[in-house]
Amino acid sequence: MSDFFALISRMRYISRWGLMRSSIPENVQEHSHMVAVLAHALGLIRRDIFGEACDIGALVCAALYHDAPEILTGDLPTPIKYHSAEISAAYHEVERTASEKLVNMLPVELRGEFAPLISGEVGEELKPLLKCADRLGAYIKCVEERKAGSLEFVSAERQTLERIRSMGLREADYFLENFMPAFEKNLDELGTMSKEDLK
User: The CATH number of the domain where 87 resides is what?
Assistant: First the structure.
């Protein structure tokens, strides 16, 4: 009997943005789903827009599980996590231990598949796309908070966009240019089902 998936289901109880006053609460499960959606999009952009090979399945799976250790560690706010090299190294060690604990809950036959997903050891060619999807998820959260009237996220929005652009990924540039403007729209502007659609 394994506790693994019962613990995975508890991602929804881990809140994100602990130091921020959020208008729209977000948990790790919601974040992981959005990061997987964005990773899928970035992988498709790489493959179908720019014609480069991409293991989209591996990328999406890595995105789904990228924050799984936080079930055991909680979500440490970014300003604390990266306050110093010592704190960052210590936190990475805690994450590594949590990853091992989760993986060891699985039957031996499944551990080889899950270990790299839980520990974030995706191939070098996928790492930038996974990191970009994670940052895009945070950026979208900041945009949505600003639109909801929360000034708390204005500087985080600017800093996160700078981090995305500094990655120099054309997949990110393509997403920002073609998909991000729609996040500024309200529901009426995005469009809903009309009578004409139903004909």
Answer: 1.10.3210.10
Beta carbons within 8 Å of 66's beta carbon, 6+ residues apart? 32, 35, 117, 120, 130, 134
How far is it, in rounded angstroms, from Cα 49 to Cα 140? Answer: 22
Q: Domain range holding 39?
A: 4-13+24-184
Q: What is the pTM of this model?
A: 0.89
| Tens digit of each residue's pLDDT (9 = 90 or more) over 138-160 | 999 999 999 999 888 999 999 99
pLDDT of residue 74: 77
Residue 17 near residue 73, CB atoms below 8 Å: no
**Distant-in-sequence, close-in-space partners of 65: CB < 8 Å, separation ≥ 6:** 32, 114, 117, 118
- Identify which of 137, 112, 151 has the alpha carbon closest to the alpha carbon of residue 37: 137
Quick one: CA dihedral 158, 163, 166, 169, positive or negative?
negative
- The number of distinct structural domains making up the chain is 1
**Nearest CA to 175 among 35, 55, 30?**
35
Selection from 61, 44, 62 nearest residue 53 by Cα: 44
> Does 195 map to a domain?
no
